[in-house]
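[recover] target loaded
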């Protein structure tokens, strides 16, 4: 597999500044990042099922990632890294924002979790390969999606598992995730740019170019009375996929 070209910078300075400005609010479940706290259990349910399926693990095990390494890219302040550590993994989190990394490190230390956090471009950090690589709600924020996905693939060890989530580029996502959600303050204004959303077909193509084979996508849907939930059939707002070396 060709190594990602580190001259292809994926971090957008305006995106880094936007999320850096929210760093201190990341762990406030009722603050501007409330939407992440609401969707995170749904993402983790998908991830746990994928981990158990990939490694034929015991679904009752408290630490399904014991003796495995995990990398979360675009980790923010650690909402995914901390559960991965509790699942037994040796965890590294990477984010464009040094402010996010600082908050993440302090929060992990306060909870007695040993997690390595680093700020910068993934392709230039030379971190090696990991059994599990995750990147949730990140690819829509990067400047060069092809270089970013290639860097994720380069970070995946043989036999490893990659898990991604991203909003779909549909009329429904424009109306609900961008216009309505930002208008009512469900997500901070300026968080989403609909034209940067990625369809399942586009993401599958990017992963295939990086030498990965994808599983069937699963939607993160919403409906009154049920809220956010996994849906194999409704990909109109947001979706998750797993990938492995082809």
């Amino acid at each position: 597999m060709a190594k990602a070209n580190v001259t292809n910078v994926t971090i957008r300075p305006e995106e880094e500044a936007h999320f850096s400005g929210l760093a201190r609010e990341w762990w406030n479940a009722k603050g501007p990042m409330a939407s992440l706290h609401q969707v995170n259990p749904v993402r983790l349910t998908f991830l746990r099922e994928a981990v158990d399926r990939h490694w034929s693990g015991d679904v009752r095990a408290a630490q399904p990632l014991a003796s495995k390494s995990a990398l979360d890219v675009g980790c923010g302040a650690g909402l995914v890294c901390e559960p991965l550590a509790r699942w037994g993994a040796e965890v590294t989190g990477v984010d464009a924002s040094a402010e996010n990394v600082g908050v993440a490190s302090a929060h992990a230390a306060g909870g007695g979790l040993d997690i390595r956090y680093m700020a910068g471009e993934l392709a230039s950090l030379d971190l090696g390969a990991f059994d599990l690589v995750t990147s949730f709600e990140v690819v829509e924020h990067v400047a060069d999606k092809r270089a970013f996905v290639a860097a994720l693939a380069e970070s995946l060890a043989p036999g490893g598992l990659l898990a991604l989530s991203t909003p779909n580029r549909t009329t429904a996502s424009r109306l609900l995730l961008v216009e309505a959600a930002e208008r009512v303050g469900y997500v901070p204004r300026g968080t989403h740019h609909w034209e940067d959303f990625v369809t399942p077909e586009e993401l599958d193509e990017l992963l295939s170019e990086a030498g990965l084979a994808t599983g069937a996508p699963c939607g993160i849907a919403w409906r009154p009375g049920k809220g956010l939930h996994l849906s194999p059939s409704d990909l109109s707002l947001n979706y998750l996929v797993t990938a492995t070396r082809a």
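[recover] notes: The first helix runs from residue 13 to 20.
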